[in-house]
Amino acid sequence: MTAKTASPTSDAPTGRPWTCPFCPLSCDGFSLADAPRPTLVDSDCPRATAALSHFAAVLASATARIDGRAADHRSAVAAAAAILAASRQPLFAGLATDVAGMRALYRLANGCGAILDHANGDALMHSTRALQDRGVFYTTLAEIRNRADLVVCLGTNASDHYPEFFRRTAPAADAPERHVVFVGANADTAAPGLGGVTVEEIGLAGNVFDTVALLAARLAGRRMASSDPALDALVARMLGARYTVVVWESGSLPAHGALVAETIQRIVNTLNRTTRAAAFCLGGGDGGYTANQVTTWLSGLPLRTGVHKRGLVHEPQRYATAQLLAHRAVDAVLWVSAFTPELAPPATDLPLVVLGHPGLEAATRANTVFIPVSTPGIGSAGHLFRADGGVVLPLAPIYEDTLPGVADVAGDIASRLAASEGGAR
Ligand code: SF4
User: Fold this and answer.
1) For residue 378, how far is its CA from the centre of ligand 1 (angstroms)?
2) All structural domains of the chain
């Protein structure tokens, strides 16, 4: 996936201001034209374009389904509550929703002792483990724009999956000159925002683990048996820069990527002894950062936590969705995918509740209660955490659709669950 700079013409459509909910950069500088279908006006970001293709210009409507057969909302809520009530250990997964949706899901998890994991949980855990083990030193999009004179993209070209990253971080008018080094990745020099900076590509020294370890060792002044001229030059450049930003992409790392994340923090720490440096993690898509932040502020623990009746349990590996399903450690799944029909639930024969985009194929599955939900930023208002952590952006709908939000549906299921438990007492 690559992005090219849009070239607006005099007859280009004009649109309304809009905040894009389809990746954690949460671009809020582009506008959206409504007809004939929602279209970005001043960016041709392929990620947003693909996501918008799943929405029409008019309000969405869809029907709930039980085992593939149409059902009214009330019956579907009752069937979902019955599945959770019968479950000894439910899993809430996917979790692609906004702040209000995640808050309501957490309350529902409290009511039935569910385990919480996100669809991108493996990638999220890389950065979460680094934070837990060593602490992290991250920067913001604005800080990169205003201060960074050296950006080192480690193992990612950034623009493939985050097409507007370089435009969002392009040097401000009074910012220092910028040099961008791609380590183990090919630069997409046509990416918007990359035009005004000098770009360099160097290879990995073996794999990404070896490369960050070598960089960390050389920056710390350790003598090495062999030398790598390209890495040595990068070390000299980093030590001489006024503000280095190391960009990495959590979803591109293999298993045990937390080791890379931790070593990047070591690099940043070393640089901060003599100059200034920070890291920037590209990740947290499909509401991943939002789900993790909300879970953490409500429980004190990140995702992959079980809100069990006996107390909270955080298991970063054991509570991975794939692990739990493979070991039959859960007996029901509630899957949430409010942004796209492409984030499908895992294949499972367990009872499944899906709160999702109306286009999800799971709507017609057997053994499934499907309740269509509104997409924040398209059919309803909402809030999402941006990639740089502490920034929460409000989302405005482009139309008010007829579908309930995840928060509404989770609240309805929780009420039904509480009512059935009250009746059983
Ligand atoms: S880069 Fe991300 S937030 Fe920005 S327009 Fe593309 S998909 Fe949307």
Assistant:
1) 14
2) 64-120+286-424 (3.40.50.740), 125-282 (3.40.228.10)
